[in-house]
What does this fold into?
Amino acid sequence: MDVRIERVLKAPVSTVYAAWTRADTMRHWYCPNPALDLTVDAEVEVGGAYVVAMGPHVVRGTYREVDPPHRLVFDWKWDEDDDGPSTVSIELSDAGEGTRMLLVHTGFGSAEEAANHLQAWEPTIDRLEQLLSR
It folds into this structure.
């Protein structure tokens, strides 16, 4: 099972791309729980690393594809988990008055793991949508 979330966001493609690639912007939305302290360090280039700490939970990975402002692909690995990394891809395209964003998260070890990530991605993307609508 994969996670697949598609939304039309009320912002230009370049603004949505910046929200996914600028650590100072990611700090405002890149966690499903706004009560957790959030730190982000991201070197957005092919082979570049990122680390996101959501309170005690840390996820890290490497950027595999960087095609501004339309595509990002990166590994996703929790420090607390012994499983191998999964993969997140973000596709952005013009949608008239906004941006069509397609997030696909693949490579889970179980359907339960995929469902848990879907439950976390949904409110995270809600927070992105709220940030972009300001």
The chain has a mean pLDDT of 96. The longest strand covers residues 57-67.
